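Reopening this one. Same input as before:
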Amino acid sequence: MRFGFCWVFLVLIFLSACNSYTSEYTTLEPIGVHPNGTIYIGMESCKECHLDIVSSHMQTAHWLTSSMMTPDRLLPLLKAEKNYLDLKDDTRLTYSFQNDSLFQEASRNPLEKPFLISPLNIIIGSGTKVGNSFLGWEDNSLYQFQGSYHLPSNKWINSPGFPDFFQAKRPIFPRCMECHTTFAQSENWQSPIPINRYNKNNIVFGIDCQRCHGSVVEHVKHHRDFPTDSIGKKILAYSDFSQKQRIDMCALCHSGVGDQSLLPVFSFKPGDDLSKFIRSQSASVPDVHSNQVGLLTMSKCFLESDTMDCMTCHDPHLNERNNSIKFNARCIQCHPAPKHFTAKVSEEWDCISCHMPVQGSRQMKIQITSDSLVPVGVRTHKIAIYKEEIDSTLQLQQ
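Same output, byte for byte:
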């Protein structure tokens, strides 16, 4: 009798512990809903089983590529050398910080009252390399504003593509949002005519888990019901994708804007054939800033491999920026004994400096001063032998 009572008591403790544990789950509340029925939830639910992966992903450029203006994203901007930008038509753009918000004020004379004050609601870019640009709302219309923060010079500069004179704003179309957010619902999302009007309450900022793994609602529900099931269920696994499917997933944003959208933006899902959604840019030489996939697929490494894709070298869950040791190690995994007769500088391998050099973008140029237009330097993803890099290396040896 005593044994039976103890056994029942232990079972009750176990059940109460389980109930206590499950009651701490994050409520699966939608933060975005696609018109096709796809529900987007926050990454808090992913942390329940993948805390390390989610925490590291939140340090990546993918996650930081867009967000609402928050105090932590404002902090670097407060350190700018000066809080204004002068244009050639004597317009001064001044940036002010009020109640954890950022405003752009345009005036012809610094002593006069601004003729335009615009709130900057959304920050674009990770802010880890070039800097940030800013978007703002006018009713339901979304625009980019003229000033950008340039991290290397710690200055406010003219936003790329804007003229030297004052231009208040530039409309942001859905294709822009497709690469900078997980989801953003355009008011006419099925129309071939792009507009810059959105449902402001139906935007999922940053590139989160669901952008690459598809809807996670059923996956989360399953593993809450079966917490001991260690094999991921009801979720897309990249290991099941072909090489082309894996490449296409990255190419959605890393093969340029595209010449034409064939289907509505945000309709592409991981595993789809990208050519059915976007017609790729037709430039004979892909640009280093926007078309990394186009350059990679021209590389001998890729052409002679049946398995190579972007994740052969990149872990999208980690912030690997400037980690040359790790990238060089990945080169050596496939090329353990490269033959270098003249180009090797030292005993330390540095594959990417010579075979993937930093090059100036033809498409992305920034105006650091009023009289200069400088190409943004980006490491090319066309893996090749570059004579100019070899020549410079030889000069270092002499």
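So the earlier flakiness isn't reproducible anymore. For the record, The longest strand covers residues 358-366.
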